[in-house]
Structures are given as structure tokens and as C-alpha cells.
Write a structure and sequence with these properties.
Largest sheet: 10 strands, mixed
Organism: Chitinophaga pinensis (strain ATCC 43595 / DSM 2588 / LMG 13176 / NBRC 15968 / NCIMB 11800 / UQM 2034)
Enzyme class: ligase
Oligomer: single chain
Strand content: 15-25%
Number of helices: 16
Number of strands: 17
Structural class: alpha+beta
Helix content: 25-40%
Subunit structure: Heterotrimer of A, B and C subunits.
Protein name: Aspartyl/glutamyl-tRNA(Asn/Gln) amidotransferase subunit B
Distance between the termini: 69 Å
GO molecular function: ATP binding; glutaminyl-tRNA synthase (glutamine-hydrolyzing) activity
Radius of gyration: 30 Å
Length: 484
């Protein structure tokens, strides 16, 4: 029996635990820098190192960021909050415990809507809670010892926990892509998995189709990219099906994924919640969130990606594809909004951003935030095309590169200096048309017999002979008259 046939008997059930580092300047419970990088053990203090007598103090901005994410996901925000001690041995968290939230997460429930084949699915969240990050054990710095870098210890995290609501590696990929866009959109996390600022653990189980009881779950950790999460989930599904098909028993355990060879290996048997011996953190007072404070944060939320996509399609008349690519990140959407505020030609602006601008940024390996042209400058170039003073081809291939080199020069001045302004004088275009038609008498005959697609050939030849300066609209009009 093949693996493909065997897999059809089973339903996959997946729950995710995603840790996202919050973009605060300081750590969750002290003023040490939360910045990524830096020489080992330079972003530390007695509080980070858990020295006796030191006391934590809550970072207000971290609370705000957690609430922003919860509001964007439609979570219920817990008004009465407290922290708990999670007694779990982290070799790289020097206190010997982690300060986290347990029975009262700051955000309860919520959804993340993900695109799936044929539409959209709402993935139910269990919770979003605040906690501190651990440091980093470094096993490759010394041949005999593990070194520990405490720079990351105490950096604020939110842990986003889904219900067991995903059913394939494709859904997992879609969820993480959507979530990463959201945290970046809200400016609460940079989403850089390769830097560890967004990390994912996947809890995977299988059961026979039609069953309602969940199977034994296996947690897979150490997943440092969305692609590797997808690979790890696919590998674990195959491993579990193979065990069951061979009559074995799946053990509840935590496994690590080796991205190099695409396999996982067992780390430890999975702990239960009571193994952590949670109790309220005695050094931190509970905190209360007022209705006025929550209302302020709700009003300050930006328009969310899906709402913006819907507006671009319904109000701006953009194709769904264009709208989704523009809203893939907030900086691009913001730039688009600034351009259309100057020149409200929504589709034309989208074409420029998804065409020449995107190609240039890809070549440079840059983001839209690094783009040399101001929205007003790009709007001026697009206006030249819309006014019929230059063709899109000339604007994108000749004026646009020149404008990138001379960002303060006006597009019209560049077009004039390079002698690129479109010729809309029928008297100068007509002789070129005559020359083209004389060159292709057989094509002219075919056109007159009904092969209308040849018009593009004639227009192209006129544009070539005029060095792109002939007005395409006038050229088409004159050609149509001469070809009657």
C-alpha cells in the first residue's frame, strides 16, 4: 500500500504556537536594550542576569503592542491582568524561571483569516499572551563548553496560540505568512524568522477521518523560516502515518527539525502544564486596563490589510491580484496612497508600482522605504504619460532611470532635455506611416482581408522609426484611416 493511499485515510490536525518579539526599545521588565545583535552579553544588567535583590518593572509599550495585535485579531482584551512564574529550566534564562501569563492571557480568542484554495478560512486563536524571551545557548564557540549570550533574555514576546484548527502544511504556510504580514503592518514585530524575532512551534497529530477525538500530538521546534515550518509539518505527518500503518504507537514528545536533511529527532517527552508549577509572580503587581485606554488603542489602529484590499477593489476598481500585492506590506500600500493622492489614476499607479518600481527594488535588493523617488516625483512621471506627452515605454525605459539618478529634476525637464516628448503632429507622423505601409505591402493586403491583428505590427514599426516619439493614439488613428 503506497504512502499516498495511506494518507487519504487520515485527517491531520495542527495547532501552532508562534512567538513574536515585540519592537520595543527596552526589555519587558527592565531598561536593557532589546535591539537585535550586539556583542554577546552587552545588553544586560543585574536585572537581566537575575541577581538577588533585583526587581522587575513592566514595560508599558509591550502591553500596548500586545493589545494592538489582539484588537486586530478580534480578541477579547482581558481588563484585569497579572503575570505568573513558569518554573521551567532554561539554561539561558538566569533566574531559573520565566515570567509569563497563564490563566489570564491579555488577549483571549480571536481569529486570523487566511487565504485558502477557493476562498478564505478563519483560523481560531486560543490566546495571545505576554512573556519574556530566553537567552541563546551557543554550542559552536568553544570545543568543550556551551557559551550563553543573555542579550535576548528578557526581550518582550507575545505568544500567539491557535486552536487545533489547521489541517495541512499549506494552511500552516498561509497562516504564518498572513500573521507575519499583520505584525509588520501593525509595527509590533519585524517578523524576521531568520533573526529569531518570530519563531514557530507546531503541534501535529493525525486521526482517522470521521473521528472526533484528537490523536497524540507531537511538538516540532527549532523552525526558523516559514518554508521550514512547512517542510517540518509535511515530514512529521509522513512519520506519524508510517508509525500507525506499521502498527506502532505515536509518543507525545518534543522533536527538533534539522533543516539540512529535512528530518526531525526527539528532544524530550512532552511536559504537561502542571510540570511548570505556575504561580502568580510575587514581584509584579497586577495591572488594570481602562476602557478609555483600550478605546484610544482601537481608534489608533491602522486600516487592516484585508479591509484595504476590499477598498482597493470596490472603490479604486483594481483587480484583486493588484490589490493584494500592493497590500502585502504597509509601506508599499502607504506609498501607493500617497501617489494616488496626487494623481488619482488608480490602475495606472498600480501598474507603475507593480512594474518598473518593483523591478527596480528587486534589482537593488531594497524595500519601498529605501526607494529614491518621492511619491510626488513618481506621480509627476505618471502624469506625463496620462497627458500624452510621452509613452509608457519611453517613460519607463528612458525617463524613469534618469529620474532615479537625478531625483530633484522634474520628469518634464528630463523628457525635454533628452528630446523624448511625444510627437502629436499628424503632419510629421503621416510620412512615417507611409514609409511603413510601403515597406509591408503584403501585410497591408492581409490586413485589408481581415487580419486586423497586424495593426500592432504597423504601430510598432512607426514607433521604432520615430524613436518612440510618435503619439500612439494619433498613430493608431492615422493608420486606421490610411488602411481603409
Amino acid at each position: 500500500m503506497s504512502a499516498a493511499i495511506d494518507s487519504d485515510k487520515y485527517e491531520v490536525v495542527i495547532g501552532l504556537e508562534v512567538h513574536a518579539q515585540l519592537l520595543t526599545e527596552s526589555k519587558l521588565f527592565c531598561g536593557d536594550s532589546a535591539a537585535f545583535g550586539g556583542a554577546p552579553n552587552t545588553h544586560i544588567s543585574p536585572i537581566t542576569l537575575g541577581h538577588p535583590g533585583t526587581l522587575p518593572k513592566l514595560n508599558r509599550k509591550a502591553v500596548e503592542y500586545a493589545i494592538r495585535l489582539g484588537l486586530a485579531c478580534g480578541s477579547r482584551i482581558e481588563r484585569e491582568n497579572y503575570f505568573a512564574r513558569k518554573n521551567y529550566f532554561y539554561p539561558d534564562l538566569p533566574k531559573g524561571y520565566q515570567i509569563s501569563q497563564h490563566t489570564a492571557p491579555i488577549c483571549d480568542g480571536g481569529i486570523v483569516a487566511i487565504p485558502v484554495a477557493g476562498g478564505q478560512r478563519d483560523i481560531q486563536l486560543n490566546r495571545i499572551h505576554l512573556e519574556e524571551d530566553a537567552g541563546k545557548s551557543m554550542h559552536d564557540q568553544d570545543p568543550s563548553f556551551t557559551m550563553v549570550d543573555y542579550n535576548r533574555a528578557g526581550v518582550p514576546l507575545v505568544e500567539i496560540v491557535t486552536e487545533p484548527a489547521l489541517h495541512s502544511s499549506d494552511e500552516v504556510y498561509s497562516f504564518l505568512t498572513t500573521l507575519r504580514r499583520l505584525v509588520r503592518w501593525l509595527d509590533v514585530c519585524d517578523g524576521n524568522m531568520e533573526e529569531g524575532s518570530m519563531r514557530c512551534d507546531a503541534n501535529i497529530s493525525i486521526r482517522l477521518k470521521g473521528e472526533t477525538k484528537l490523536g497524540t500530538k507531537v511538538e516540532v521546534k527549532n523552525l526558523n523560516s516559514i518554508r521550514n515550518v512547512k517542510r517540518a509539518v509535511e515530514g512529521e505527518i509522513k512519520r506519524q502515518i508510517s508509525i500507525v500503518e506499521e502498527g506502532g504507537t505515536i509518543l507525545q514528545e518534543t522533536r527538533s527539525f534539522d533543516a539540512g536533511n529535512g528530518t526531525s529527532f526527539s528532544l524530550r517527552s512532552k511536559e504537561e502544564a502542571n510540570d511548570y508549577r505556575y504561580f502568580p509572580e510575587p514581584d509584579l503587581a497586577p495591572f488594570h486596563l481602562t476602557e478609555d485606554y483600550l478605546d484610544q488603542l482601537l481608534k489608533a489602529l491602522p486600516e487592516l490589510p484585508e479591509a484595504m484590499v476590499e477598498r482597493y477593489v470596490s472603490q479604486y476598481g483594481l483587480p484583486d491580484y493588484d490589490a493584494r500585492v500592493l497590500c502585502d506590506d504597509k509601506a508599499t500600500a502607504d506609498y501607493y496612497e500617497q501617489v494616488v493622492a496626487v494623481i488619482p489614476k488608480h490602475k495606472a499607479v498600480a501598474n507603475w508600482l507593480l512594474g518598473p518600481v518593483k523591478s527596480t527594488l528587486n534589482e537593488q535588493g531594497a524595500a519601498i522605504s529605501d526607494f529614491a523617488l518621492s511619491p510626488a516625483a513618481l506621480a509627476g512621471l505618471i502624469q506625463l504619460v496620462e497627458d500624452g506627452k510621452v509613452s509608457f515605454s519611453i517613460a519607463s525605459s528612458r525617463i524613469f532611470p534618469e529620474l532615479l539618478l537625478n531625483t530633484t529634476e522634474k520628469p518634464l525637464d528630463i523628457a525635454t532635455r533628452l528630446n523624448l516628448l511625444q510627437d502629436n503632429n499628424a503632419g510629421s507622423i503621416a510620412p512615417i506611416i507611409d514609409e511603413v505601409l510601403a515597406k509591408y505591402p503584403d501585410k497591408v493586403a492581409e490586413f485589408r482581408k481581415g487580419k486586423k491583428g497586424l495593426m500592432a505590427l504597423f504601430v510598432g514599426e512607426v514607433m521604432k522609426l520615430s524613436k518612440g516619439k510618435a503619439d500612439p493614439k494619433l498613430t493608431n488613428q492615422l493608420l486606421a484611416e490610411k488602411l481603409k
